[in-house]
Amino acid sequence: MISSLCVIPARSGSKGLKDKNILDINGKPVLAYTIEACKMSGLFNNIYVATDSKKYAEIACDFGAEVPFLEPEYMAGDAVPSTDPVIYFYNQLGKDVELLWCMQPTSPLRSVEDIVNAYKIIENNSICEYVLGTTIIDPHYFHWALQDKDNDMAELFFGKEMLVDRSELKDIVHRPNGAIKVGRTNSVLKSRSFFGENIKRIDMPEERSIHIRGIMDYELCKLLLNKEV
């Protein structure tokens, strides 16, 4: 098995939805769903949570993750890319691993199978440097995309190019959903991101790709997870 470092970035300073990483769903904090999925995948010897909060750290440890240290305040700002805590943990822990994983805590519907399939993709393709969890984009986002003009009006962002029936679109477009990001260590360290060259996708359905950003996402996750119980 390829050696891995799994990091779940869970800063405490969310402004859109306060403390979204530890909100309750079905008697468990949001963060716990990602920890448990990572544990059940069987891919990781250790699951680390990167957080600036003692409270978050205690919760993470209660569900089987490890928080060997709190990340510094500058690492927990709004503008800090999620890759940075992963690289910080890699440097601080000094572990010699071949893969770095960034597991978004606000994607509680990601499945164990999704994680395992992402690993299989990068394990079986030596050219592949990164694997990202993705979801098909509804073509209507392109058909009817508008942008504002200087005269206070709006116009089609893509002009008439995308203004065709979806059956006439040549390519299906996918969006990274943030739920799973894995890359070869040297590639991640070089690009300081999971969006370098030679990316492959692990496709996930819309219902497993929900990222909790606001109250609507949170309520939708509650509804879907309650149906699974």
Automatic annotation (TrEMBL):
Keyword terms of this UniProt record: Nucleotidyltransferase, Transferase
GO molecular-function terms, A-Z: N-acylneuraminate cytidylyltransferase activity
InterPro entries assigned to the protein according to its UniProt record, in alphabetical order: CMP-NeuNAc_synthase, Cytidylyl_trans, Nucleotide-diphossugar_trans
Name of a matching Pfam family: CTP_transf_3
The protein, known as: Acylneuraminate cytidylyltransferase family protein
The organism's taxonomic lineage, starting at the top: Bacteria, Bacillati, Bacillota, Clostridia, Lachnospirales
